[in-house]
Design brief:
about 130 residues, mainly alpha, Multidrug-efflux Transporter Regulator, Chain: A, Domain 2, 2 domains, 3-stranded antiparallel sheet, two-stranded antiparallel sheet, 4 helices, 5 strands, about 10% strand
């Protein structure tokens, strides 16, 4: 529902506290990308409205120009992509650690030979390539 395009430009502008023309300018500057109907009517989602509000805070309260806002959004996107990559790599590391742990346990079990009186002796194993 957050990403569902439901608001026409007049409603989105009102929710964001902006003039509809401002939304058109932001679209031309690629700060916002509303969906379009088959008749080319712009439709904005709640995510779009929240982004418009953020643009307003950045420009009016923090004094950042639109080029700066664009760069902030680019960096945010890059951070999100890198975070996804980090998450994927962490999953792979966890999987590899689990596999390694299982393999190590197999090696330990195959290398131990029970002896009389409860003694355990390591069996000599040949290393690959030796």
């Amino acid at each position: 529902m957050y990403d569902e395009p439901v608001y026409m430009i007049s409603v989105a502008a009102k929710l964001a506290g902006m003039h509809p023309q401002t939304l058109r300018i932001y679209e031309r500057k690629k700060l916002i990308n509303p969906q379009r109907t088959q008749g080319s009517t712009r439709l904005y989602s709640q995510r779009d409205v929240d982004r418009l509000k953020l643009i307003q805070v950045l420009t009016q309260e923090l004094g950042i120009n639109l080029a700066g806002v664009t760069r902030i959004f680019e960096l945010q996107d890059e951070i999100e992509q890198l975070q996804c990559l980090i998450d994927e790599l962490n999953k792979k590391v966890a999987c590899l650690q689990e596999s390694l742990s299982q393999e190590l346990e197999k090696v330990k079990q195959s290398a131990l030979v029970p002896m009389s009186r409860g003694q355990i002796v390591l069996r000599k194993t040949r290393r690959p390539g030796c």
